[in-house]
Amino acid sequence: MWLTRSDAAPAPGSIRVGIFDLRRIAPLRVLVAILITACVPATAEPSLAMIELLALEGFDPVSYFVKEGPLAGSARFELTWGGRVWRFASGADRAAFRDNPEVYTPRLGGFDAAGILDGRLVDADPLVFAVIGERLYLFRDGERRARFLADPDLARQAEAAWPGLQDLLDVPIRDAPR
Question: How far apart are CA 127 and CA 106, in angstroms?
C-alpha cells in the first residue's frame, strides 16, 4: 500500500514504501551495521554449546531401586553427570546419586540389553526395566525383559559385549558429576 499525499509526487529516484523513504533509511542501516561491528571483537569465535540429554526421560534413577519406583524426577532436583541431565524425585535421591552414580545409572549406557547382545545400540523404554544382581538394565519391550529374567547369565554376556560397542556412540559417556 502506498501512503503518499495526493498533492506531493515522489522525488525522482526515491522509493517510498508505506510512509518511509528508503533513501533516508539506508544510511541509518549502514550506521547500525557499523556500530554492531564495532561492538563485536574481531577475534570472537562462535561458542560451541554442549547439548546435554535428559537421562531416563526424566525418571529418577534412584527410584528404580525402591518398591514405589520408578518415579518421575523434578527439574528442581537435577544433576549433570556423564554428559546427561539426571532428574530426581527428592534432594535425598540426588545426593545418593551424586555420591555413587555408578550404582544407580542403567548399565550398558541405558540401551536395550538384548540389543547389546545382538551387537546393536537399541533405544530402551525407561519403564521396561529389571534390577539384576543389584544393577539396573533397560529393555525395549517386555519380551526382551522376560528373556533376561529367565536367564540372568545374559546380563553377564551383554556386559562383556558392551565395551566393543561404545565406539558406536555419537557422544561418549563421561563421568564426573556436576
Answer: 12
E strands present in the chain: 16-17, 20-21, 53-54, 74-81, 84-88, 125-132, 135-139
Euclidean distance between CA atoms 49 and 5, whole angstroms: 52
> Would you say the pTM of this structure is higher than 0.70?
no
Q: Is 71 exposed, middle or buried (0-12, 13-18, 19+ CB in 10 A)?
A: middle
Q: Are 45 and 51 in contact (CB under 8 A)?
A: no
In this structure, the number of other CB atoms found within 10 A of the CB of residue 87 comes to: 23
Q: What is the pLDDT of residues 149-175, one digit of tens each?
A: 999 899 999 999 999 888 777 655 554
d(CA 162, CA 65): 23
Cell 526424566 found at = 58
pLDDT in tens, 68-102: 889 999 999 999 998 899 999 999 999 999 999 99
Task: Show the cell assigned to 137.
Answer: 538394565
